[in-house]
Amino acid sequence: MAKFEHVQVPEDGEKITVAADGTLQTPDKPVIAFIEGDGTGRDIWRASKMVFDAAVKHCYGAAREVAWMEIFAGEKANSVCGNYLPDETLEAIQEYHVAIKGPLTTPVGGGFRSLNVTLRQRLDLFACVRPVRYFPGVPSPVKEPGKVDMVIFRENTEDVYSGLELQEGTEEAKKLIEFCREAYGWNIRPDSGIGIKPVSIQGSKRIIRAAINYALKHGRKSVTLVHKGNIMKFTEGAFRKWGYDLVREEFSDVAVGWEDCGGDPGGKLLVKDTIADIFLQQILTRPTEFDVIATMNLNGDYMSDALAAQVGGIGIAPGANINYENGMAIFEATHGTAPKYADLDQVNPSSVILSGIMMFEHLGWTEVSEAIIQAMTRTFANKTVTYDFERLMTGATLLKCSEFGQKVIENL
Ligand code: NAP
Question: Best label site of 10, 199, 224, 281, fewest CB within 10 Å?
Fold first, then answer.
């Protein structure tokens, strides 16, 4: 067992192991790492942990329990370990496989593009999975939010997020501009900043494979590849092509591409594609046509926020970063640290609670996920909500963050 300087490994917990096919073997008392998060993360984590522990007890009595292990990132890591992202945090996640986290402040000028992006890339958590579903009673800006039921698979390790950017006016930018002119006859304005985005066959196929496997496992009807391939033919257009190739190569007995069936999958899973701008219209005008979505990093970022808004906003949007090849995963709040509300016990903890639901599914403890979903459904239907929903509802009862957690527990 690795020895950590700051991380205390719970003595009575057991390690999750991973089978050769990437599936987790979860013991009855698994060690699960958590990062409470900065700002409002502290309040949110306290309320969420209370719900998780109560739901596990509700489902399994004394037979199962989570052995929580705190690991450090963000401001707390800087004060405890003198570093915003200590190596031992990454090592602990690698060794214990599953972690859950609250939001983190990205230090300005700290050498990181974002702590979240760094965690995803260094651990190769290639799939950012964001289910978007509506809970009746939650305030929404659209007329029929109940029609939205999608799961986004956003590629996490490529695209502009891992590409090179060169600042306008620097020697490097000038050199690249000159190279592009000489090698490709590409005349870039000399006062340009430059960005390069890589999109690979391997990166594209593994995210599309994960989306298709998820759709098959959960009895979903379709997977839509969302891209801007009409303009970026060799990155986004290639993503689309590689997706259809993958269906033919690996899934021909259970799935079929639109190109090969003209829209009639004959009982198989339908894999289709759409251009990103049309997609953003159609999720509003005909959301029932979309089910599982597979897309690249930047598109996925925009789409998950747009869809989250349709079903109640970022206070209620869960997320997971998963490597489906080795089972490693970090479940996380998708909103930020909302620093003005820090330690006021006020914000909505639903994003982390719903991320926990995904975590329990990943662990194979589906009874816990189902129990929490039902309890949250009752809590929202009874109009017992935090400030962000209360201000948009009539006749709602305003609860603090911790009170909302308590209410979910009462509704288990
Ligand atoms: P933010 O923290 O997401 O907050 C923006 C607004 O969203 C808040 O003022 C609040 O709106 C609402 N909100 C956020 N969390 C909420 C919750 N749990 N319940 C209810 N409402 C919630 O965005 P930001 O202010 O732009 O970013 C602050 C810091 O967070 C930055 O350092 C940023 O880098 C970081 N960040 C971290 C993550 C992450 O860790 N995953 C993601 C994004 C940003 P109202 O004021 O209208 O109530």
Answer: 281
Which whole-number Å values give the CA distances from 228 to 170, 242, 294, 295, in the listed order? 30, 14, 13, 10
Phi, psi (degrees; rounded to nearest 5) at 92: -65, -40
Three-class SS of residue 388?
helix
Q: Does the active-site annotation cover 253? A: no
**Ligand 1 binding pocket includes 348 (Cβ within 6 Å):** yes
**Candidate list 161, 324, 341, 387, residue with the active-site label:** 161
Per the CB < 8 A criterion, the answer to whether 358 and 331 are in contact is yes
Going residue by residue through the chain, which has 412 residues, state the pLDDT in tens, using 9 for 90 and above.
Answer: 557 999 999 999 999 999 888 789 999 999 999 999 999 999 999 999 999 999 999 999 999 999 999 999 999 999 999 989 999 999 999 999 999 999 998 776 556 668 888 898 899 999 999 999 999 999 999 999 999 999 999 999 999 888 789 999 999 999 999 999 999 999 999 999 999 999 999 999 999 999 999 999 999 999 999 999 999 999 999 999 999 999 999 999 999 999 999 889 999 999 999 999 999 999 999 999 999 999 999 999 999 999 999 998 888 899 999 999 999 999 998 888 999 999 999 999 999 999 999 999 999 999 999 999 999 999 999 999 999 999 999 999 999 999 999 999 999 9
Amino acid in position 71:
I
Let me know how long the chain is. Answer: 412
> What is the 28 CA–ligand 1 centroid distance (Å)?
35
At 229, which amino acid appears?
Answer: G
For the whole prediction, is pTM greater than 0.90? yes
